[in-house]
Here is the input.
Amino acid sequence: MPPLLKMKLNRLAAVLVWLLLVAIQPAEAGGNEVVVVYNSLLPASRMVAEHYAAARQVPAQQVLGLPLSTNEEISRVYFHDALQLPLANELVAAKLWQFAEVAAPTNGNHPPMTITKVVQSKIRYLVLCYGVPLKIAEDDKLHEIPPVDMPTEFQQNQASVDSELTTLPLIHIKLTLTGPLLNPFCNCTNPLAMTPTNGLLMVSRLDGPTAEAANGLVDKAMAAESTGLWGRAYFDARGLATNDYYYPGDHWILGAAELAHRLGFETNVDDTPETFPAGYPLSQVALYAGWYDIDASGPFAAPTVEFMPGAFAYHLHSYSAKTLRSLTHNWVGPLIGKGATCTMGCVYEPYLAFTPNVAFFLEAWANGFTFGEAAWSAQRALSWQTTVVGDPLYRPFGRDLLKQHTALLQKKSELADWSGLRLLDLEMNRGLPPQKVVVFLEHLEQAQHSGVLQEKLADLNQQLGKPASSIEALQKALQFATSPPQRLRLRLTLAARLQTAGRTGELIADYHALLTEQPAYPDRPAIEEKLKNLEVK
Here is the structure.
């Protein structure tokens, strides 16, 4: 994939920029902002649509069934005739959209131009349900003259259905279908600008390997909105040099990692060339971003992955969403099938410059954007290759953290350990010394019965040069940790610290316990070899 490219806006993209500058209309929150489209030839598709509509209270007239192919890939002619044009007509017939002719500004180099665009809209989001086609194949019969500054590799017209439909408000403008259309909303700071009247329909899909997996996306999103998005953040960069051809991908992932840390998440960063190995102790995942394997690999290839409710997971690869119907191929299908609540991916080769910028996404999401707003503000291109999977209304960062923590404590929820941990991490980000946090946790009743908080205490003691206290806290954490992946991480961390401390007897006992608790651990032969050597001594 080539490096970031400097491409001039063509005239049609300039129209989009102008649309961005017109009056911004405040949008209402909730299901009345959404149109849901399902495949009327597939009962499972309707089931997903009806479940979502009921959960988000989408008005009945905004749930539309269209007779569509059940194939993931369709032709461009079919896309226009069976989906794009009928959908635009349905939105007008339902009085959700109104088109009108307006005068577009000119810079003096072109004659005045009148365009037809959406001038009134009652909706901002389009949700495509399981069974709606995913991607539009290359059309060799489509002959367009691309902009003179468009590199050869971009001179293709294949696209994701999602990304192509983002420009539906401009259906009456003859947009160039060859190549990407630069997105004027990229890194947008005002989500209210992202409306059909300004030229953008935010598209996402409830999809995955099965209809059941797709159906659960809204349930997990609403659960996280209610109780909070908690857990750990994992970022798998590649350690590329700044002058490397592919460095922008690393830059985005490391930028997202820094944002997660600032948000108070316990953040794990790997910057070695390889992706996480199969034995990596991945547990309690709230956020994940990494690259660059073609198929779900390492801990994500396991039969189950411990995603927390509401988790966002994204793997940067050119064909991460080549299909959504597999639990093993590519990334989007496996991530959704194994429990992630939302993700993004590419259906065809996008080239690195036009893959989602995960740092832009996380920053917008943390600032209160919905998932749909954050996902499309992370895209440099429209009418291109990205699919966005998840509930577009999902907004996990819209509530006060302290109030969430208080409510969880009152309910005696185990999640209060996580909300308390985030509050502590935020205070440490603001300068609270680790010594004071150690004293606080040692006297906090809640921490005495918490594997999560005892692990934090162990990490702080290790940081302060108190290995014996760190080991003690890890051993205590294991008394209360119930999650097998969490116990694996604790066991491995404890083993490393026992080895450094020369406490061989306890190290042997820890390894034996690990093998008993984790009979299918991928690195079992390595642990057995270590035990053999230790027991010989």
In short: Confidence is low (pLDDT under 50) at residues 1-28. The first strand starts at residue 34 and ends at 39. The domain at 401-536 is CATH 1.25.40.10 (Serine Threonine Protein Phosphatase 5, Tetratricopeptide repeat). The first helix runs from residue 11 to 20.
